[in-house]
Write a structure and sequence with these properties.
single chain; 570 residues; alpha/beta; 8-stranded mixed sheet; 6-stranded antiparallel sheet; 18 helices; disordered C terminus
Amino acid sequence: MTRVLAWRDIPLFARLPGAAATELERRLQLETFAPGEALLRKGDQGRALFAVAAGAVRVVTGSERDVVLGAGEVFGEMSLLSGLAVSARVEALGETRLWVLPRRDFFELVEARVGLGEALTHLVVARLREQSSAAQRGAQRIFCRSASTAAEAGSAAALARAIGHHEPGARHVVLAPGRERAQLETHSPDGGTTLFYAAPDADLAAGLEPGDAVVDWNLGEARLDPGRAHAARVTLVDAAEAPRGLPGPWHYRIPAGDVAAYLAGERSLAQVPLLDRLARWSTRRLVGLALGSGAARGFAHLGVLAVLEEAGLPIDTLSGTSIGGITALLYALGGSAPAAIDLARRTLGTNELVRRVRWVPRSSFLSGEALARRAAEISAGRGFADLSRRVQVVTCDLVRGEKFVLDQGPMDLGLLATAAIPGALPPVEHGSRLLVDGALVSRIPIDLLARERCGLRVAVNVLPSPVEAGDAAADQAKLLRRFERFLGFRDVIGRSWEVLGWWKGNSDAADADVLIEPQTHPYSGYDFATLDEMLQVGRAAAEAQLPVLRAETQRLFGGGACPTAPFDES
């Protein structure tokens, strides 16, 4: 028997306030069930709320794939809340221990309004969202170009196997040249996942639909313009290390040797991470993070990334605004949270970058020269295509008055443009555009994760709420002292940006599956020497949300099927 979860470690119960938790502890019962023992039978009246403390249970759905629930997951609530009969048989897989809240106690706690009802509402909403997401994943069409070389043939076979790991019931259809449209109409989406193989020169554009996934080999040939479909391009390389200064957009660079080893059974899917990520992109199982603006408070993003990485949560793609965009680039450049933290400490953890005031201010009161040198030092000639994972950085184009997303080209352009606070740093020229801080148009760019086929979208908001400002009179005096100093207009501008962020940030994050909010200080936004303090604040916020992230990840990967085994607590 593996470690038994305490009731406090069950994500549903972890949401409860103190009084509700005390009452719940008094009523919960820890029970043991033998392998194969029926916990619920189809047609029975719901008798209790169950939470898995150790082991696992199987929900026998009658379809090709039963559902397995592991430690921390809850079942039985739908029958209790709806008053309807149990819809499926649930049985123990091996010896299983469950926390059981009997029916009578369940309703007494819900009616007492001690917090259990609110927690259950969150659970039901999450269930409905997962059902919607599963339905979306289940009616999937994935197109893969047939191989034109032996290496591509091996990679196509490897991708098919990897997709089968995540979607065991996926069908495979070879499209005959000249008959693609007729075959596509015959194999229309019906709730299953279909992997289509098309000839290298096939014209698929007319048959593609929104939401289709297209995997194309050999970026240099650029054989497919998918239109409304989602496209991923793959290049086979001889080694894991990629050359610097790659042109064009980010793409999957998968080592050919790793593919061969995977096909030969010498490596697991977890040992070929980019192939697994491509398969999860195809089946809408990516994990995406949207990192918000907040100036120096954005160092808290690094603390969040460190906790998620240590917990085993895949971090597949990132979008960011302002300091969030900078943090995303540092993380994808370094390839890990410790590397990104070290890079930030060496290059950005100082106030020198915001002290170079122009003698004759024109478009800004800071020259931006020191930041430009630091951006060049960080990027070292590398571009977005050189990063370890895809990153999208939000900027605002002052010429057209619109949001402009940087996801290709020189990395230092992204660093400078998304940091160019209007009035503080000069706009960045890019072709016919003048780019400034993307916080003008998007505080937390969760929307950019939609076309990344993310099944779990996490937003991080590092801006504090205005209600946390404390004593109004003391805060007024503090701000007036700062505003009346020499060049105090910089503080007026900064404070005004923060207020704008408070009002816009929560709205931007409304579509996130999980929101992480580090508790930063209201007046610490432009002190870049507080890196270590912000790291700890970010870590604390992420750790507080780990129970929720565990539950969301287990649902995304079907109860822990992710090959990287996130949140392994055995």
